[in-house]
Design goal:
single chain; about 450 residues; alpha/beta; nine-stranded mixed β-sheet; five-stranded parallel β-sheet; disordered N terminus
Length: about 450
């Protein structure tokens, strides 16, 4: 049977869990749901799929974070006491055979062997429909059922990961190893909680794959409307492996701090420089980092540059968890992914503006990108001039472009506003924000002045 092309549509994701809160900010994207419960050995169905425990709501929140263009179908199989059963899981899976969905997210395991064969048979039927099932491994175990079953993908949280945030092992009982580090997400009643572990890792992978299915416009290989009987499971794995960079590049956060602390002991007194810092910054944000004194901003800058270690907590930059790296490896990685622009003029006066930009880069420079940035900054006409012929305002733009063309994950800018009038100061800040938005370049401007910080859409106070 030949596959027919379908119009781009939102990815439909089914959640088998504790339900979903009616206070979630994206309830309009829930297109249906059902609640299966057991009473006196009989299965009952109702449409009250609202979450009273919070777990399913956090799963939805993580998926939505990584797949904004998705729709949910909720299958609730837990009661208020966190009780469920194999037969309810079987009922849920059987029900989803009849629902038009693309991916099924399951965050539970089965300890009993009852209905194991029936669950396997149903998962096989789901697989034949072209639907993908991701199942969280039970926390604390190497593998569990149904995560280890052939016709679904088991997901396990691990600490050591490549830059993209996950890896796959073909022909392994558990095939996807992903980022289960805590993220702060919506739970119930507009509350937020930290969510981590295998369930979080599974939800994140569901979101990543769902997002890519959406942006790839449902190409023929994954068209579930016309199932090809020769469809092979590992086409999914090949698809993911081939597109590792694109999958993660489009959606992940650039900087994430979780309960980050930095302290020193001075004369037997514990002094906190940074305390319980929790932030998430996405690709393309221009953020003011405001510290009440220069010591705080300098310390935070040195941590991001890999020059200082944190005392406790976690810091992830562009998929690298710095606390897990040795000192030498941390310095090498941070040198590549984080660039800093100081107040000091670093341009070489003996060579032209253009030569300054392309000189001494640790990676190949895209010359078309250089021209584009110069034109965007309205300084293309001065590229063959020498830095000493330019104003301080123009020199600051050149120093900034010199780092942007290297395409780092993050650029740190020291308060770049000395020796400029107020109009130039405002224009420079506007320039940083425009570059961040247009070229998806994440920028931190470090300042101790509140009036400067207030010019940015987002301020992080240290």
């Amino acid at each position: 049977m030949e596959n027919k092309k379908v119009k781009c549509k939102k990815t439909k994701i089914a959640i088998i869990d504790t339900g979903a809160s009616l206070t979630l900010p994206f309830t309009e994207d829930i297109f249906g749901g059902i609640f299966f419960s057991m009473q006196e050995n009989k299965i009952y169905a109702s449409h009250d799929w609202s979450d009273q425990l919070g777990h399913g709501s956090m799963v939805c929140s993580i998926i939505k974070r990584y797949c904004p263009d998705c729709l949910f179908y909720i299958v609730k199989i837990y009661d208020k006491q966190w009780l469920t059963s194999s037969v309810l899981l079987l009922q849920a899976l059987d029900h989803l055979l009849k629902i038009d969905i693309d991916i099924i997210n399951v965050s539970l395991s089965v300890s009993s062997h009852m209905y194991e064969k029936e669950i396997k048979d149903t998962l096989f039927e789901i697989w034949k429909q072209g639907k993908m099932v991701l199942v969280a491994v039970e926390n604390g175990k190497k593998e569990s059922f149904p995560a280890n079953y052939q016709y679904c993908y088991g997901v396990k949280s691990v600490k050591k990961l490549p830059q993209c945030g996950y890896y796959l092992k073909k022909n392994n009982n558990i095939e996807i190893f992903a980022d289960g580090y805590p993220e702060y997400v919506e739970e119930m009643e507009k509350r937020k909680k930290w969510f981590s572990g295998n369930s979080k890792a599974t939800a994140k992978m569901t979101g990543i794959i769902g997002h890519y299915l959406y942006i790839k416009n449902k190409d023929d290989l994954f068209n579930i409307n016309n199932v090809n009987s020769s469809f092979q499971k590992y086409k999914w794995a090949d698809f993911i492996n081939q597109n590792n960079n694109n999958l993660y590049k489009n959606i992940h956060e650039i900087v994430r701090c979780m309960e980050l602390c930095k302290n020193y002991c001075r004369e037997d007194i514990l002094v906190y420089v940074l305390r319980n810092l929790n932030i998430e910054v996405s690709r393309g944000e221009a953020v003011a980092i405001f510290g009440k004194n220069k010591t705080v901003t300098t310390e935070f800058s040195n941590i991001l540059l890999g020059k200082e270690t944190i005392t406790s907590g976690s810091l992830c930059i562009d998929g690298y968890f710095l606390e897990n790296l040795s000192s030498s490896k941390r310095n090498i990685i941070c040198k590549k992914i984080v660039k800093k622009i100081s107040n000091k003029n670093t341009l070489v006066n003996k060579i032209t503006v253009y030569e300054n930009i392309i000189k001494n880069s640790d990676k190949k420079i895209d010359l078309n990108y250089v021209e584009c940035l110069l034109d965007f900054a309205d300084i293309l006409d001065i590229k063959n001039k020498f830095p000493k012929e330019l104003s301080d305002f123009q020199q600051k733009k050149i120093m900034f472009i010199k780092e942007v063309v290297k395409r780092p994950a993050l650029i740190l800018v020291e308060e770049p506003l000395k020796s400029m009038n107020q109009i130039e100061k405002d224009k420079l800040i506007e320039f940083y924000i425009d570059v961040a938005t247009t070229f998806e370049q994440t920028i931190f401007v470090l300042t101790n002045k509140k009036n400067i910080a207030n010019k940015f859409n987002r301020i992080i106070e240290l």
